Amino acid sequence: MTSMHKPHALFLPLLFCMCVSYLAIELFYNHYAMLSVDEFWFAHRIYEFKSGLPYRDFAPYKTILGYYLLLPPLLSGRGILQTLLLTKDYLALLNMIILFASSLWLSRFFSRTSILSSLAILIASEIVLSYSTQLRIDLPGYWLGFFSLLLLLEKRYLLAGLLIGLGFITTQKIIWYVFASNAALLIHWLMYQRQLKTIKPIILFNTACAIIILLYLSFWSLISDWNTVMNSVFHEASAMYHLSWYNDTRTLFWHTILLYNPLLFLLWPISFFSLFITYDDDKSYSQRQLVVIFSLVILGCLIPYKQVFPYYMQVTIPVFFILYAALITWFIGLFSTPHPLRFLIKPSYVWMMLACYLMSIVMLTTTLNLPLPYLFICLIPISLILYVSTQKMAVLHGRILLLTSLFMGFIYPLSLLPAKIIWLNGNYQQAHIQTIHSLLQEGGDYVAGIELIYNKTQPIAGLRHLMGPAVSYLYAPTSELKEVMLASLYEDPHANIASVIHALQASSVKFYVNNYRMHALPLPIKNYLHSEYKHWWGSIYLYAPRISEGQRIITIKFTGNYLIASSPGHFVELNEHRYAQGSIIHLQKGHLISNADSAYRLKLIPARKRYALSPEFQQDEWEKLMF
């Protein structure tokens, strides 16, 4: 298909500037903001692909092409923190290239002004700012699904199926794209063809997709076995999908999503109207119809979804990009066409849909306690219908749409971001990652409830990945929770309070890192940690066993220098040598004879003489460590 719009001189320069602006913003954000808790976990998971084969040597989480795509920057060896940031920058660069290339591709179907407008809405959204460069494998998969849709618009069904198949072996979550693509193709077939001989494109698309998936399953089954691969790809994904543990947080998640992205998530139902109102020279109707049905299926599936985490909205980034390009093309044509507008259904049905849409906005605003200015978005459908009904005052209604979009998509939500960005300051976290890595160079292990260091594995089964269901499982194991205690998630279905404490006692854990996940542990585990570790700096609690009074045999886990922390005026004897409070002595790991008239601690002193410990972060502000 050739371009339906004449090129104009500013398109490429503006597109280039917007894409470079996106890259600059993300590079700054990557190096400024905290990494999310799951980014550490995914980095550790990706790094496993360096030395092991999935399904054979370890259980992978999701399908694995995305892990290999992100592995190269993680092997750069530039230092723990620097490597993580480099990988995020790599994702930012990849996204910029995709946005630039796909904008050029989209110009074959939709107006260049609409493409630039859609891109601007996307770049200004908090979803893109916060989540487009997160260390996850999902967005590359969604981009493959997005390119598959573009190929469907060009009627290249075989290639579209191959691409969406590649998307599936990058992340199973692209199954929604597969479902949406089939829904769009099927509805298009029912509307225009309705003959069995013309269903060939749908068969080609699905056959190509199925071939890629079957080749993937067969290849990894040769390395491992069929049941292992099938269980990993399908059963585990299904178990996570049906997990109801997060149901009570859905309202909070939707509040957060809509608060920072009102235009992005409240405007999309307008696209439904574009299916029923057209005009004689509406050259993009066929493409718009496919895009709108595809997008509405995916966005509609999100509404009842149980685990609607804000990061999960990565799935909408490609969807909104193409949907708003199609929608704004329709807006432009609607207000500029000299031809009469045509309703493809009874106008009364359109008014009914409009009323439902307006009521939904009011209900969401009040139910989710959103700012009342968000009701201004109602001006867009009201103004649109007033114009469609009269086809008069196009300039006035066009300005209302433009100004309302500017306010809802840029001015108001962007005014909320500074407070959030200040809260996301990553200095505390970055200082801790560097210090934790340095401590580990002396030997010993650590626990943090998450794999904070991507090339170092925590040793305690049940504490490696303390996601919410895993914590609940420690408190009260249930059959539903046991279903998601998966090795691919670093979970242990046999873990319980007693086993965790026993593993800690037998371990060489030199320190633990306090954070909101460790805070949620059952009290017996926290009591044990408090008895064996003492605050050292920031959120790091170093080995400092509490020794009871009286004569007893004790076991020291680490060779090194220890500070005797006892009460003034009380004596401490170790192997029949008496020491004063505050003495620093060198001890070999193993058994000692302790005799004291009151309880005391032996506080391990790190082997390195100097650590770059900022006094600013001396206090334990665990809420700043990760989110």
Binned strand content: 5-15%
Largest sheet: 4 strands, mixed
Straight-line N-to-C gap: 47 Å
Sheet with most strands: strand arrangement? 3-4-6-5
Q: So what's the overall shape? A: elongated
The low-confidence runs, each spanning 5 or more residues with pLDDT under 50, are 1-7
Tally of individual helices = 25
Radius of gyration: 29 Å
**Mean pLDDT reading:** 92
The share of residues in helices is: 55-70%
Give me the secondary-structure category.
Answer: alpha+beta
What is the strand tally? 14
List keywords for this structure.
25 helices, 627 residues, alpha+beta, 14 strands, single chain, 4-stranded mixed sheet
Short synopsis of the structure:
The chain is an alpha+beta fold.
Question: Mind explaining what this structure looks like?
Answer:
By secondary structure, the protein is an alpha+beta fold. It has 25 helices and 14 strands. The strands form four sheets. A four-stranded mixed β-sheet has the order 3-4-6-5. A hairpin with a 2-residue loop joins strand 5 and strand 6 (540-543). The longest helix is centred in the middle third of the chain and has 30 residues, at 394-423. It is elongated, with a radius of gyration of 29 Å. The model is unreliable at 1-7 (pLDDT under 50).
